[in-house]
Amino acid sequence: MSSPPVARTPRLPRLPRLPGLAPASPSAPARAVPRGVRVPRLLLRATTTASAVLGLAQTVLAGSFLNGHYEALRAHELTAMALGGLLIAQLPVAALVRRGGGAGGARGPWWPLGATALLLAASGAQTGTGYERAVGVHVTLGVLLVSGLLFGLVGAWRPAPVPPATSEAEPLAESESESESESGTGSGTGGTGGTGDGGDGGSGRLPRPTAAGADAVEVAP
């Protein structure tokens, strides 16, 4: 006895793949940040990290001096000079980030340049109050200076903006809409032509002559 035939499931047609619209997979690599954006930000991260470390070291040296270790005062002075020089070197780096550190080569954020200039001014004032033995102002300004250095460190280590990739979806959509509008116009023209072929809207009668004195009798097919 032969077995009954097994019904085959109809195979669905494969949809055409549009160019430039590859399926997004979760394992797809992220777009790389251009070199002109990456290098200034790496330099900014290096300088802000070093200045934050020096600022935290200043707090340790100041506390050691207040505990009676007077030899820490010299190290505190040298660290303040190193911090001022590092902030001076950070100014051109912040200017580079402002010039071309944004997405797609656009202007980057303005805050690194403004924050670096403000921190440099605060560092100079901090050194002046230290030499003048104005301990109250020196300690207060030192706390604000270290806080500003830490905020700059956090801002510099934020992810850099990625330039948007050029997408071909919009041109494809526009071309599809144009083709649809053209096809719709063609069908409308065809409908008008069908009226002419059928005579009078497909009624089977010839059109009545409009000339003067021409009273023709309608002829049925």
Topology readout:
Blueprint: H1 35-66, H2 72-100, H3 111-131, H4 135-156, H5 169-198
Rg, rounded, reads: 39 Å
How many extended strands?
A: 0
Helix content: 55-70%
Overall shape: it is elongated
Strand content: under 5%
Major sheet size, sense and barrel closure:
none
Low-confidence runs? 185-199, 216-221
Give a verbal description of the structure.
The protein is mostly helical and 221 residues long. The chain has a domain of 122 residues. 61% of the residues lie in helices and 0% in strands. It has five helices and no strands. Helix 1 packs antiparallel against helix 4 and helix 3 runs antiparallel to helix 4. It starts with 34 loop residues before the first helix and ends in a 23-residue tail after the last helix.
Would you kindly provide a brief summary of this structure?
With 221 residues, the protein is mainly alpha-helical. 61% of the residues lie in helices and 0% in strands.
Features:
221 residues, mainly alpha
